[in-house]
Task: structure prediction
Amino acid sequence: MRHLMSPLDFTTEELEKLFCLANDIENNKEKYAHACDGKILATCFYEPSTRTRLSFESAMIRLGGQVIGFSDAGSSSAAKGESVSDTIRVISGYADICAMRHPKEGAPMVAMEKSLIPVINAGDGGHQHPTQTLTDLLTIRSLKGSLSGFTIGLCGDLKFGRTVHSLIDALVRYDNINFIFISPDELKIPDYIIEMLKNKNIPYKEVSSLDEVMPQLDLLYMTRVQKERFFNEEDYIRLKNYYILDTEKMQLAKPDMLVLHPLPRVNEISVEVDNDPRAAYFKQAEYGVYVRMALILTLLELA
Ligand code: CP
Result:
């Protein structure tokens, strides 16, 4: 039985197979409409979500399966003190596969150890968000045609942004990727990631000015300042509008640079940018359904 805790749980060859399947699903939806007949997905979300939970649920329903779950720890027996281990043992008898989001780093791993069904990490604290990474990789591969040979700028909250940490882990396995980390000092990328890049001799630089590096980028991955991970509200208020991507800044970019964002956005991308053909973040959210459909089929060994 396979689980998904980190994007590194799949080899690049396995990811290639997953992305081909996701593209086939996108183009031949009817072919997969009954692939999961009789199967049940449990979505156990101890933390808020729109895209991840609903795209998982949409994915299972589009495959012909059904969905159970909770979207708030307060409406589950976690509110009475039940452990994640006990919850997953019980859910193993109710569902065939489980997607779990939890505010504590490592909670889905604890669930995985006791689970009798595949568990998917749908985001654990500031640690990892592997299915967002699968979505990001599928978007880049589909819209850019390749997962190699580009300069990517990651901008905003690089300290707490789990999507950024997962994406870097995944991208270092591809050739000729140049990373530019754009953040204020307080929200810099964690040291362990810098150490990993140094050990692998992967080119990177850290800057605070988005304007300065904009012309170099093939991809700009914007992120929200993660309010829920701040200990101090004053710091959040000071940093939340540090970067705002607007049409003026977009004029500095290459004509084929893509803007990605895991969403939700707050202020970091002006709505005026939505009409720019380089704004790919809503298409990215749509790819999230196809890649989760492919993932469910793969983990249930139905692909
Ligand atoms: N990208 C993402 O994880 O969005 P949600 O928090 O809405 O699931």
